[in-house]
């Protein structure tokens, strides 16, 4: 019996290593047991942004959390190919290889875009989709009639400008951006540290791909019930809540049955700024 047990454990470890080799575009940390939830962090973020979410959902035996950290982010080795297409295809394969039955997929920011793209391209794989402050066409927020060619041109220009920055200017720009996205200094510092340990080219190229993307038509292919949680208070000096909410509802107009909720007390990193509000919305959505 002992020999069989040791053999079974060894086989499990070998399978785990084989599975990891099959998805170099991300690392996965698994917690708990039960129905699978896949959590995808955003640009230059570690899977640790979901620590509170994992504690909330995957400690009771109801859910098992599969937390990704994407290649090139937060100290993970970068890959040569474009990150987002590779991550999408490898995540689809990960779901199939593990025989997950319509897992819940939760993504923040760039991770929300990746979850959206997965659900649109592989609609049969995703059970429920939760998008934390991400849009189908981020580059079109202020110019809704912009074309895909114009989005690509804008994104390429942004990437070239970022790559031309020296290290100190790039870091200062990151800090300035994070201060608009997160309220508490300790959370800003945490996000800044993961940014420091991220591959600069991967960050810039992934941001450019996100800015060039337009999924406003593609979301019509999503079959999964979808919850979108957006934020507005960081932009209150520029537009009222109603106008910012309208950006979300308009961009998701072709996603049938989508539920859009807007946080009143959280900036972009809702899981840091107002986790109680976020959990309440997700709880109601999953139940």
UniProtKB/TrEMBL annotation:
What start and end residues bound the annotated signal peptide? 1-20
**Gene3D superfamilies from the xrefs?**
alpha/beta hydrolase (3.40.50.1820)
Transmembrane segments in this chain: where? Answer: none
Keyword set, alphabetical order: Hydrolase, Signal
Listed GO MF terms? hydrolase activity
| The keyword Signal appears for this protein | yes
Q: Which residues form the AB hydrolase-1 domain?
A: 36-273
Q: Does the keyword Amino-acid biosynthesis apply?
A: no
Spell out the InterPro entries in the cross-references: AB_hydrolase_1, AB_hydrolase_fold, Carboxylesterase_BioH
From the Swiss-Prot or TrEMBL record, give the protein name: Alpha/beta fold hydrolase
| Biological source species | Duganella alba
């Amino acid at each position: 019996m002992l020999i069989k047990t040791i053999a079974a454990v060894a086989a499990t470890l070998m399978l785990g290593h084989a599975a990891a080799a099959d998805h170099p575009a991300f690392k996965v940390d698994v917690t708990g047991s039960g129905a699978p939830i896949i959590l995808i962090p955003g640009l230059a973020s570690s899977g640790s942004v979901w620590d509170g979410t994992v504690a909330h959902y995957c400690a009771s035996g109801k859910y098992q959390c599969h937390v990704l950290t994407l290649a090139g982010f937060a100290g993970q080795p970068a890959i040569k190919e474009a990150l987002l297409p590779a991550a999408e295809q490898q995540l689809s394969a990960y779901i199939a290889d593990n025989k997950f039955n319509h897992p819940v997929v939760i993504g923040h920011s760039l991770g929300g875009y990746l979850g959206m793209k997965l659900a649109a391209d592989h609609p049969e794989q995703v059970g429920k989709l939760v998008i934390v402050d991400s849009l189908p066409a981020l580059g079109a927020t202020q110019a809704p009639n912009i074309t895909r060619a114009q989005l690509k041109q804008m994104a390429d220009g942004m990437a070239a400008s970022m790559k031309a920055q020296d290290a100190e200017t790039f870091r200062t720009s990151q800090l300035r951006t994070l201060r608009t996205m997160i309220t508490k200094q300790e959370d800003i510092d945490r996000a800044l540290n993961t940014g420091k340990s991220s591959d600069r080219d991967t960050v810039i190229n992934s941001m450019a791909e996100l800015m060039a993307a337009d999924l406003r038509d593609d979301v019509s292919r999503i079959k999964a019930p979808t919850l979108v949680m957006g934020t507005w208070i960081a932009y209150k000096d520029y537009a009222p809540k109603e106008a910012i909410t309208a950006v979300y509802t308009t961009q998701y107009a072709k996603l049938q049955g989508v539920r859009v909720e807007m946080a009143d007390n959280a900036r972009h990193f809702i899981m840091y700024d107002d986790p109680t509000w976020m959990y309440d919305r997700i709880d109601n959505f999953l139940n």
